[in-house]
Amino acid sequence: MTKLTTEEARKKFDELRHRDGRVDPRELDEVWAALDTVRAEDILGEWRGSGFDTGHAGSAALEQIRWYGKRFNSLLDVQPVICTDEDGNLYSNTAAGNGEASLWMVEFRGEVTATMVYDGLPIFDHFKRVDGTTLFGIMNGKGELVFDKGQHFYFILDKA
After folding, report:
1. Quick check: is 53 in a domain?
2. Of 81, 78, 79, 57, residue with least CA distance to 151
3. Rounded to an integer, what distance in angstroms lies between the CA atom of residue 17 and that of residue 14?
4. Which of 92, 95, 157, 160 is the most exposed place for a label (fewest CB within 10 A)?
5. Is residue 150, in this structure, part of any structural domain at all?
6. How many domains is the chain built from?
7. Where are the extended beta strands (E) located within the chain?
8. Helix boundaries (H) for 76-160
């Protein structure tokens, strides 16, 4: 299999995010490998989240808590699980995230990229840049929340 160029990866990412039905994680891994890494300080702000339909149980769990996205206030002040309440107001769901998080530069799959580290869970969310307003995330760490049948949870963040 030939490696995708960054531009091909961006096009494939867009195709996969709009695909009706399941997405094969191997296709997502191929896209991930071709995208550019991103610096932690370059992703500060509020991001709207969504997941890829890979069949991972994390998608249903996030839907159940009405996950909205993530808020990176500073490198050491991150709200990883922003949800909507009954009235549509946003709040940081510290119960679901077992606290909050911070941003670091961490190696994943041989590359150093922006990574969100949860304060109270053995979970790392690694990010790569799709374009100026879109990030591709992979949840990594320990436990069933992260690995469902041995598979990572793949997600999208769009700048709010």
Report:
1. yes
2. 57
3. 5
4. 95
5. yes
6. 1
7. 36-37, 45-51, 67-74, 77-84, 90-92, 101-108, 111-118, 123-131, 134-141, 153-159
8. 94-97
pLDDT one-digit tens code per residue, 101-151: 999 999 999 999 999 999 999 999 999 999 999 999 999 998 877 888 788
- Does residue 11 lie within any of the structural domains? no
Dig out the tokens for 105 from the structure. Answer: 């530069």
**Given this model, what pLDDT does residue 139 score?**
96
First vs last C-alpha separation in the chain? 35
CB neighbours of residue 38 within 10 Å: 19
pTM above 0.70, yes or no: yes
Q: Assess if residue 20 is contained within a domain.
A: no
Distances (CA, A) of 90 to 33, 81, 122: 33, 10, 25
What is residue 39's predicted lDDT score, i.e. its pLDDT?
98
The string of pLDDT tens digits covering residues 32-64 is 999 999 999 999 999 999 999 999 999 999 999
The two three-digit tokens of residue 109, written as one number? 């799959």
CATH number for position 105: 2.40.128.580
Answer for the pair 146, 155: CB distance below 8 angstroms, yes or no. no
Predicted local confidence at residue 1, as pLDDT: 60
